[in-house]
Structure formats: C-alpha cells, structure tokens
Amino acid sequence: MFDMNNFQLNGKVAFVTGASYGIGFAIASAFASAGAKIVFNDINQDLVNRGLEAYKEAGIEAHGYVCDVTDEDAVQATVKKIEEEVGTVDILVNNAGIIKRIPMLEMSAKDFRQVIDIDLNGPFIVSKAVIPGMIKKGHGKIINICSMMSELGRETVSAYAAAKGGLKMLTKNIASEYGEYNIQCNGIGPGYIATPQTAPLRERQADGSRHPFDQFIIAKTPAARWGEAADLMGPAVFLASDASNFVNGHVLYVDGGILAYIGKQPQ
Ligand code: NAP
Ligand code: GCO
Questions:
Q1: Which single residue of 48, 215, 248, 262 has CA 20 to 30 Å from 62?
Q2: How many other CB atoms are found less than 10 A from the CB of residue 224?
C-alpha cells in the first residue's frame, strides 16, 4: 500500500540557491509546505533581506546566507555554517542562474565565461560542498534547475544553452558517481516561466501588442500559456521526497508540452 507520507519533507534541511524570489522562492515555499526547514543564499545582503521578508510574509521561517555560488571558499564556509546553525543539508536545489542574451559573434569570452561560471560551475561547487554531509547521513537529494536549453538552442543564448546542456550531463554524472550512497540527483527543466528573468521576452510593445517572443512561445506551447513558478512546486517536492528514491539521473521537463510539439500551424 503506498504511503502518501513519502511525499512529506518533515524535518529535512533544504538548501535552495538564489532563492530570494522567482523559481527558487516558489520551490523553497513548496518545500516548507511539505515540512522542510528552508535555507537559501543570494549574492548580497539586500537580496537576502528581501528574501527573508518574503518568506516571513509567507509564514516561512527561512535561514538566509550571503554567498556567491561561484566562490568555492565562500560556498564551503557557508555550507559549514548551515550545518552548524541549521543542520546537514538533506536537499540541495541548484537554482541560482543568469542569462545573457547576446548574439554569439557579439558576445565577449568574458560574458560567456560568466554565464558558464554561475550556471554550471556554481552547481558543481555547491554540490561538491554538500555531498560529504549527505554521504555521512546516508541519503541526499540534489535537484539541478536545467532548461529547454538543455535540449534546444536558439539565437542569442549560446552561453546559457552550453551551461544548461552541461548541467544536464553534470546531473547524470552526480547520479552515477553517488547513487550508491543513496543520493539521487535529478534535474527539473522548466519551460518558459513568467519570472524577472523572462520579463524582457514578455514586455508589451509600444503599440500595446504582445512581444513577438511572447506570441512565439504561446504558439510553441500546447498548454498555450507561459508557465508560472507555482507549476514547478509539485515536481520539485516529488524529486525532493522519498517518493522518488529510485529516480536518478533524470531531467523532468515541466514545459506544458513544448518539447513534444512542433508548434501551432499558422492560421
Ligand atoms: P531569476 O528571477 O533571475 O532569479 C535567479 C536568482 O539567482 C536571483 O535571485 C539571482 O540573484 C540569483 N543569482 C544569480 N547569480 C548568483 C550567484 N552567483 N550566486 C548566488 N545567487 C545568484 O531567475 P528565475 O527565472 O527564477 O530562474 C531560476 C533558475 O531557473 C535559473 O537557473 C534559470 O536559468 C532557470 N530557468 C528559468 C526559466 C524561466 O523561464 N524563468 C526556465 C528554465 C530555467 P540576482 O537577483 O542578484 O540576479
Ligand atoms: C530565453 C529564456 C529561456 C528560459 C528558459 C527556458 O531567453 O530563451 O530565458 O532560456 O529562461 O531557460 O527553459
């Protein structure tokens, strides 16, 4: 008989990176509803304070830390502090990320490297910091926030697609290397979600019409809508819970069907 408590996260310590707002905040809020203790980081104190306020307003007692996921010494020190102040990390969500939309021939190597550093090196660095504690505890969950660009390319997002494609393979490799320690590492691949990161793609045009990209995405999505961060809550709780203990190295696409669909035929 299936025990629905397998979806609970009671007493687990969940660390969600870059979770002052956006997708990370939504996922952390869902984890709190499932019983987890919430830990998050962001790159400066103002953002951490903003996040703490937002969690408090949502009735969630969160622990916030200032830490840049690309700084290995800072990440190691922060995870040590989390272990002392909150407890060993049971669930890690590598959510922190940026995008730079620049045509490849106009993109500097510096810009390319910055996206790779945050979106790919960051998850490596933070995972490396929490895995020893998970091994000691005998269990762990790592969820990497991938993307449609883990599977598809498009103009102007070469660095982001390279990073998110790499993140898909890092997910498979962590699953392969640490599965024997009862650590499951999976990805979530959101479709196009209405957050600050995609706001430029949804801006109303001067004549009041919808942004061409907004219309494009609606035509490419069977669900015929942008996703909301809330659409990711259930899949994230599933992958963070005991209900997914034999799911490993998988990227769960939460995209309203984009990857399955050739796109609406022109009327
Ligand atoms: P967002 O609104 O831009 O939030 C990203 C968060 O990460 C921000 O709080 C940001 O802080 C933080 N961050 C950036 N660099 C960091 C660093 N070096 N160290 C620590 N934190 C850092 O993005 P989102 O839309 O919520 O996306 C969250 C994740 O989902 C990203 O990995 C993104 O690639 C992925 N994703 C998004 C979509 C979508 O449609 N929105 C779809 C698929 C995947 P700042 O405010 O200082 O930048
Ligand atoms: C873009 C968008 C996408 C989304 C997301 C899709 O410019 O194409 O920002 O990359 O952020 O990654 O899954």
A1: 248
A2: 12
- Whole-angstrom distance, CA of residue 186 vs CA of residue 170: 10
From the CA of 12, how far away is ligand 1's center (Å)? Answer: 23
* CATH code, 248: 3.40.50.720
Q: What is the pTM of this model?
A: 0.97
Residue 150 CB–ligand 1 contact under 6 Å? no
Same domain assignment for residues 201 and 121: no
Domain count, the chain: 2
Q: What is the spatial distance between Cα 41 and Cα 90, in angstroms, rounded to a whole number?
A: 16
Residue 267 resides in a domain: no
Which of 147, 66, 67 minimizes the C-alpha distance to 99? 147
Residues 205 and 141 in one domain: no
pLDDT tens per residue across span 183-199? 999 999 999 999 999 99
Contact 26, 95 (CB under 8 A): no
Active site residues: 160
Query: Is 193 touching ligand 1 by the criterion CB < 6 Å?
Result: yes
User: What's the whole-number mean pLDDT along residues 84-110?
Assistant: 98
User: Whose CA is closest to atom 4 on ligand 2?
Assistant: 192
In this structure, the answer to whether residues 21 and 99 fall within a common structural domain is yes
- 265 occurs within a structural domain: no
- Indicate which atom in ligand 2 lies nearest the CA of residue 255: 13
Tell me, in angstroms, the distance from the centre of ligand 2 to residue 122's CA: 18
